[in-house]
Amino acid sequence: MTTVDLSEFRTPGRGRGILDVFRWHYLLRLLVRKGTQTRYRNSALGWGWSYVKPAAQFGVYYVVMGIILELHRNIPLFAVYLFSGIVMVNFFNESFSNATKSITDNRALVKKIYLPRELFPIAAVIGAFIHFLPQAAILLVVCLLMGWTPSLIGLAAIVVAIVIVAVTALGLGMFFGALNVAYRDAQNFVEIIQVFSTWSVPVLYTWHMVADKAPEWLFNIYMVNPLAAAVELFHRGMWRPVAERAIATDGGELFAGPANLWLNAGIGLAIAVVFLLAGQAVFRRFERRFAQDL
Fold first, then answer.
1. Less packed terminus of the chain by CB within 10 Å, N or C?
2. Cα–Cα distance between 66 and 209 in angstroms, integer?
3. pLDDT-derived band of residue 165, with 50, 70 and 90 as boundaries?
4. Count of alpha carbons within 13 Å of 84, Cβ hemisphere only?
5. pTM beyond 0.70
6. Mean pLDDT over residues 59-79, rounded?
7. CA angle (275 as vertex; 203, 277 as ends), nearest 5
8. Which of 53, 196, 64 shows the shortest CA–CA distance to 135?
């Protein structure tokens, strides 16, 4: 009796999860290219919206928080502080939202052919990162004009901050993206989380304000929130060097950074990895019915 070698075959519809991305990297590039090319199709401003939206958001927050509530008096270079936080929160919100909708937005592909479903949320996060780059470029130019000089610890803080946000958004995006296929009201929970992500991190205020009002145990929980840790790391890399330079030139006092910043960042990264593992587990549990539910 002739035997057939099946070692090179895989069970249909079952893969190795995120690890399959390395094997199917060419498809990932195609999905990312598709997302970037069609993002502003038939739009007059095109990629100009990458600048207009954060600029409008920054203008509103600066007037309300900086001028009306006078936070600009207590925070040196408040505009840089505010914008550096905004670009990180926008990166998270866009990555999270796009990853959540990635399966339903690509229902035609999901229903017709098999490919690792994880490619869709990962491509969504990468697309959001590409959209994040023009905003970060504006911030970098402003900081350079103010005398920003890179340092090893500052660059490390920026990179770790981006990694924390990307991993957190991917994990939550896979979790809610899988639920969104079967239960479309999952998108409503995502929108609620996005509201909290904007107001529950030190962007429109400082961590000192939270420390002054919250019990110590609650403040410690607040600081290991992955998004809060990432924002403070990004402030450490972008805002603090130019703020220190301004203080040295003009005089005044710069408030200290949060204690145990790198420890909190490490815990935040660990929490982000837990989100990713949980998101992957739920995603693999639901992906068997994606085609039917779509």
1. N
2. 15
3. very high
4. 31
5. yes
6. 78
7. 155
8. 53
